[in-house]
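Much of what follows relies on a compact textual record of a protein's fold. Each token is a code from a learned vocabulary of local backbone shapes. The record below shows the convention in full.
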Amino acid sequence: QVQLVESGGGLVQPGGSLRLSCAASGSSLQVYAIGWFRQAPGKEREGLSCISNSDGARYYADSVKGRFTISRDNSLNTVYLQIDSLKPEDTAVYYCAGRGYYCTGSQSSYNYWGQGTQVTVSS
């Protein structure tokens, strides 16, 4: 069973960048597809991006294409989410989650969740 821990969040000014990390322990990340999600206050959790284990395919929500980049370093057992051109509406708690092998759009199919990292975009 894998445990996931997010880090890299913080307070950043609009237009800035952050790189979030999702580090795994207890199991190799190589067997999991890893997705990134976020939840803003008063809003439902939304899916942002996912990287598949099986072929390394990457998926992005339309709302974040061009600004978010997902990557993985299996040697470090870590998946990253690079966020550029941050906007105040990106303020949320960001979560990573894992499921077996390939990405899906169903949040309920992700079995393993981290505790989240807060991203606040404000001047």
The CA atoms of residues 12 and 121 lie 5 Å apart. DSSP finds no helices and eleven strands in the chain. The first strand starts at residue 3 and ends at 7. The two ends are 40 Å apart (CA to CA).
